[in-house]
Predict the structure.
Amino acid sequence: MDLVLDAGPLIYLGKLDAFDAVEIAGRTAVVPPSVFAEAARPELAFRHPEIATIVRMREEGRLIVVGLDVRESRLAADLAGRYGGMHSGELDVLALGLARGWTVCFHERQAARLARALGIATLHLVEVLFAGTPDGDLLERRIRELARLTNLKMSDLDVLLNLIRERR
Amino acid sequence: MNPNEDDRTTRSQVTLRLDRDLLDGIDALARAQGVDRTELVRRLLADGLAQRRMEAGIAEYAAGRRSAWSAAEVAGVDLYEMLDRIAEAGIPYSVDPVALERLRAGDDPPPPGAPPTDSPPHPVADDDDAAIAGLRARYRPSATRVLFVGESSPAGGTHFYRADSNLYRATREAFGLALNVVEPPQGDAFLAWFQELGCWLVDLAEHPVDRSTATERTRAVGAGIPALARTIREVRPARVLVVLRRIAPAARRAARIAGADDRNVDVLPFPVRQWRPVYVDQLAGILAEVLGNGAATSPPRSDPAAPTRDRAIAEQAAEYGAPGLHSVMADVLRRHGSGWMKASAIARGIAEADLWRRPSDGRHPPASQIGARARARRYARLFQTSDLGIRLRDS
């Protein structure tokens, strides 16, 4: 149990159907209940079929929902008072990372910076994909799809594609 | 409970005055849609509110003040909707630079339970400093013709070499103007072009200082003088362009230490607010002069027959007053010697020596009509402009 996912990375893992990358990278995907609730809203499943994938991952035990204990909930509330601009679910991710020493995975770099400033190890979704997708063609497809979904900056996409080419 | 009682319980009554035209428009639309005026206004308000909340959420996200999830809360939508709307709005997404650097360096991701590689109190600055240093090294030209000197990387995470800063956008515009390229390349392609033309940007301060106190900024800039002097000595640029007036003294000092001719040091205002067009205009004039021959390496022009900006200025019809006012300015500066003169002093010199009068009424024009600074920017080959004033480049 070591990679706490924020809702953004969880949704993109679902959209890319890339939960296997987390496992191949030697991680176990963990989310607080708030993140799972946002990413697995049943009323949105028709429009966003990746929700079915996310729910299935949980049912198969490949995505673990971990509740915050009293101390962690207090920690999340305390973080909310000190750091604005984040959703309470993201603060739950930070609290789990901080209290249990788990690595966290955020979508926005600002959140990752804050995590590191708090002494929490971070991992970005592209690092998970690189570490957990040995097939170069599949990795390139995943990165291109992620770039399309997120409107990734061309300069970043170029860097990632070059890295894939070098790896081949 | 009857429907009227229910309505009074769940809704509050609001009275507001509307322009007659607006009310007529509402009535016409209500008739066309077969609803009453009140119902239509309710729907319009609900739609307008939802739209405004979405705009506010997207703006907060784009400004880096909120995460997408937090912005979704502001907008009153779910995260899926917000992620889609952010992408539709064309807001670019950047991968965490620390992750990119780790991937570039071939570093393995941190093992489970490992502490972060960076730690307080300045982890953010350290992350970014390393990333920016990497980009700066990547885009260093083999031979530097124009060395741009900035104060520091912005604290907000944007940077010229990330192609997302004010400086990047204004510089790109100036390159387009100077080299007559209607649509200059963007992003990495522009940075590669910038590099190919022999241009390089370095900063005086090692860490972001734009959110520091004035004293800290001055100290950080001062500490960067020896490094800048070494860089100037090493790359021997034809021109040094300081892109912030405040740091001009430090940059000149570095140039002097490096033994460079400070006539090749130009000072531009930082391109924000009203200074943006000034920066673009002045930079375009300098680039046309310095890189004029470098156009061969520029992207294909949309109209190869079009003159460069430099030639266009030389050939343009007489501006206000008479052709040759820049020559009169040069006369005044020559009489003054090799020193700097303020624009107002140049205007006084023209009047005192009776070098030029308005053709319309035969009187001496005030400084505002001579526009000495703007004229000096246009004739970058003749004049050097800085925070100190104007002087002849080759006196």
